[in-house]
Amino acid sequence: MPASFDLVTFDSPTPDDLAAFWCAALGMVETEREDGDRWIVLGTADGTRRIGIQRGETIVGSAHLDLACPREEFDAEL
């Protein structure tokens, strides 16, 4: 299966502020929330997940990439 991006995730020391920004900028809505502001997911009005925001420090010039696939495809993807 070709690689695809289903959810873009940002780290932020102020997740609520970043969520408010992206909701206003892209017309998204909050679809999930865990532990207050530890993990916030934004998406379309029909519930399609698009942006994840997790509480954490950001370092200028750094990035991390979280990859996922269905469990049954893990060996092939690895």
Report on this structure:
The structure is a single chain. By secondary structure, the chain is of the alpha+beta class. The chain is built from two helices and four strands. It has a four-stranded mixed sheet with strand order 1-4-3-2, with helices on one face. The longest helix is centred in the N-terminal third of the chain and has 12 residues, at 15-26.
What does the secondary structure layout of this molecule look like, with pairings?
Layout: E1 8-12, H1 15-26, E2 29-34, E3 39-43, E4 49-55, H2 74-77
Parallel strand pairs: 1-4
Antiparallel strand pairs: 2-3, 3-4
What is the compact description of this entry?
The chain is of the alpha+beta class. The chain has helices at 15-26, 74-77, and strands at residues 8-12, 29-34, 39-43, 49-55.
Jot down its keywords.
single chain, 78 residues, alpha+beta, four-stranded mixed sheet, 2 helices, 4 strands
Major sheet: arrangement of strands: 1-4-3-2
SSE order, one letter for each helix or strand: EHEEEH
Strand content: 25-35%
- How many β-strand stretches? 4
Uncertain runs with pLDDT below 50, 5 residues or more? none
Put simply, the count of helices is 2
> How far is the N terminus from the C terminus?
12 Å
